[in-house]
Amino acid sequence: MGAGSLSITRPLLQWLQADTAWHALPLRQRAWLQWQARMGSLNARLASASTISPAAPASALAAPVLVLGPWRSGTTVMHELLAAATGLATPRTWQCMNATRFTSLPSGQRTQAVVARPMDGLAVNAQSPQEDEFALLTLGVESAYRAFWMPHRIDQLHATLDQAHWLADGDWLRTWEQFLEGVLRSSPPARQPLLLKSPNHSFRLHAIQRHWPGTRVVWMLRDGAAVAHSNLKMWRTMVQQHGLTTARPGALEAFIAQALRACAQTLDQAAQTPGQAPWAWVQATRLRLDGEAVVHEVHAQLQLPGEIDGPALQAALQSTARGREDQYDGILPDVLMSAVREFDAAQKRLLKRGGG
Fold it and tell me: Domain range holding 114?
């Protein structure tokens, strides 16, 4: 993902243009992004017109299954294993990276070479289950991933980590539903519920549950220090590869710290809320050691439809096993260490209640 590799629309362009750093970019780069935004917005309008049908309105969407947790907690592996095992419809790379026009793409344009994710080496291709946050970013939703483009503005994106922010904003839900409807239409046979993975939805969970009370959740648990170290690596890599500007000292660390604290609060609230839809708590270390058993347990706990596809699950287990899990032993900044302690304490409280 990055400037030139992801289609954009006018709302994202306007956010980029609102900063003085925009005017310091090379004229050719600004012109290219402006052209992309015009074409992206046009394609988005055409796609919207083509997906609206009395036969399948947005209200036909069932409450989804969400794979959540902080960034770098194991959500990608869990997503890939569940998608393979259940056959549930899920956004694919070619859909998320072409969010403004994927419903009209011919099948020949859906094939891409396999690439390795820089943060862990996991293989990604056009048909890989993908994080729908990239689609929301493209379509103009106020995503934390805007910082990949202009990392010096990450301080402006702290609200994206706040449940109240998303509860107060209904526009993003309409955009999201329209994209998900398109996913269903372009993913035959489309089996609901949709299986969705985005760590960013961890911060929107209350709004999603208000909209779909039956939302089922898989939440990934991982050692807080490992999550923090891995986040620093991931964000720095993405900024280096795709940023139009540079980050300010300490801003990234403060942002990740707030994200960990927000996840800790969500864990505490979820564990104390009776009568909610089923949750499954999965420890990332156990997923790596015994992924097949974990998938069967999650399938049963969340009462997912259908039978598990054993051969497809085995193939996914072999594929995800090739991913790299880095080991970290450096000292974290104080702002992150404080957040790590809060996050780990919330996970321990959850496990003591028998949550995982």
Answer: 10-352
Q: Which two tokens stand for residue 167?
A: 């509860």
For CA atoms 161, 163, 164, 166, the dihedral sign is positive
Torsion of CA 255, 259, 264, 268, to 10 degrees: 130
- 211-220 pLDDT tens trace: 999 999 999 9
Determine the Cα–Cα distance for residues 126 and 112; give it in Å rounded to an integer.
5
pLDDT in tens, 123-142: 677 888 999 999 999 899 99
Whether the link from the prior residue into 189 is cis, omega within 30° of 0, is yes
β strands within 69-186, DSSP E = 115-116, 123-124
Residue 308 three-state SS = coil
Residues 194/90, Cβ–Cβ less than 8 Å: yes
* Per-residue b or e along 297-329, where b marks 16 or more CB atoms closer than 10 Å to that residue's CB: ebbeebebeeebeeeebeebbebbeebeeeeee
| Residues 6+ away with beta carbon under 8 Å from 24 | none
* Euclidean distance between CA atoms 123 and 186, whole angstroms: 23
Query: What is the pLDDT confidence band of residue 4, given thresholds at 50, 70 and 90?
Result: very low
Q: Is residue 4 part of a domain?
A: no
CATH number at residue 62: 3.40.50.300
Rounded to the nearest 10 degrees, the angle between the axes of helix 10-17 and helix 27-51 is 150
5: in domain: no
Does any domain span residue 23? yes
Interacting residues of 241 by C-beta distance below 8 A, sequence separation 6+: 2, 118
Q: How many domains does the chain have?
A: 1
Does a structural domain hold residue 3?
no
Q: In terms of C-beta density within 10 A (0-12 exposed, 13-18 middle, 19 or more buried), how is residue 39 classed? A: middle
8 Å CB contact between 43 and 7: yes
